[in-house]
Amino acid sequence: MPKDATINARVDRRLKVRAERVLAQVGVSTSEAVTMLLHQIVLRNGMPFEVRVPNAETRAALDELAAGGGERFDKPTHEVFERISRPRQKRRA
Fold it and tell me: Which residues form the signal peptide (predicted)?
């Protein structure tokens, strides 16, 4: 297909730089990534990922994190997952 249209988008400079670093690691330019996104939108007849308004519980969690609260996990993901998914042991009376 001929490339005969231009898209201009204003984004945060830091976001652009961070995204370009990731894209460079996979050998894709920003322009190519935007083109890929547009193709996926057409193929799926919508966004290629879920976009929705967070519910009250999620908003509260985001607010808590923004205020410096919330639980921190400093171990590898698999260790954290094992700890939180393990059945709780019953206390002995």
Answer: none
